[in-house]
């Protein structure tokens, strides 16, 4: 079996470029096994010709090596081709009980509709626990889905402060095969930024406590609209602030009526005022 030298050179070069990934390292180990002591990857990765020549020579001398080399070349084409978004991410479902957040929604819609310019488009949704910050971000995303034809990415950082693991979650949602997710934090960040660059996509980063926690996930591309959700504004985050305040008594009563039904609310009588006062205007508490 005759395997062209240019094709083998292109293969080992692709492997060298993909060495940051687990798949790239595994493929290079397979190639090293075929080349034996006669071939080694260049330290700089600049010239792959000698290694490719050794592989071709061995393949001409041994048909079994030629078959194995052809198999590795096929694996390289399937695993080390340029990455692209392979899946359109979607937001998780949100509550059907939503009350009086029109001003905040208008602010988010205005931010999403702003023409892309030299600066990233970001919003910081903040409010005390139970105020409905997550519900607001999700309601906005679902109601404005047509603005984001390339998808809506949701990363929940409630139980994980490691940005590297959050990047892994984001890349998975974008359809990147597990074997092609880089191991290093910088490589993961660069991969994420490359994938979303120029895409009309919404990124919701929920339950954020610090800018350091999300810095690698803050898209630099102005085509991306990022909504950060947290209990308070984050120092050092360049984003339009959207405060979610407690519901007024009137709106809390309307929400309770929608959740429990008018008959149940009427049965409480005057006690309903005390129940709502204990909820403190927090939609999460009212829904419970």
UniProtKB/TrEMBL annotation:
GO terms for molecular function: ATP binding. Keywords: ATP-binding, Nucleotide-binding. InterPro entries: P-loop_NTPase. This is ATP-binding protein. It comes from Streptomyces triticagri.
């Amino acid at each position: 079996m005759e395997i062209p030298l240019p094709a083998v050179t292109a293969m080992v070069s692709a492997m060298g470029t993909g060495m940051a990934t687990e798949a790239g390292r595994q493929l290079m180990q397979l190639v090293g096994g075929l080349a034996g002591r006669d071939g080694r990857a260049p330290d700089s990765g600049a010239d792959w010709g000698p290694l490719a020549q050794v592989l071709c020579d061995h393949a001409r001398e041994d048909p079994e090596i030629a078959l194995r080399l052809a198999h590795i070349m096929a694996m390289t084409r399937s695993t080390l081709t340029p990455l692209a978004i392979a899946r359109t991410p979607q937001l998780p479902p949100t509550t059907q009980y939503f009350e009086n957040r029109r001003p905040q929604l208008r602010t988010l819609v205005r931010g999403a509709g702003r023409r892309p310019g030299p600066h990233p488009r970001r919003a910081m949704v903040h409010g005390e626990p139970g105020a409905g910050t997550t519900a607001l971000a999700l309601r906005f995303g679902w109601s404005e889905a047509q603005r984001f034809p390339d998808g809506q990415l949701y990363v929940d950082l409630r139980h994980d402060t490691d940005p590297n693991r959050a990047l892994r979650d984001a890349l998975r949602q974008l359809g990147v095969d597990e074997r092609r997710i880089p191991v290093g934090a910088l490589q993961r960040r660069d991969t994420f930024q490359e994938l979303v660059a120029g895409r009309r996509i919404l990124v919701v980063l929920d339950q954020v406590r610090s800018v350091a926690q999300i810095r690698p996930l803050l898209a630099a591309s102005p085509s991306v609209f990022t909504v950060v959700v947290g209990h308070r504004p984050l120092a050092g985050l360049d984003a339009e602030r959207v405060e979610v305040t407690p519901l007024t008594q009137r709106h809390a009563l309307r929400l309770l009526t929608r959740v429990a039904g008018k008959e149940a609310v009427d049965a409480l009588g005057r006690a309903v005022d005390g129940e709502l006062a204990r909820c403190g205007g927090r939609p999460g508490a009212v829904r419970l």
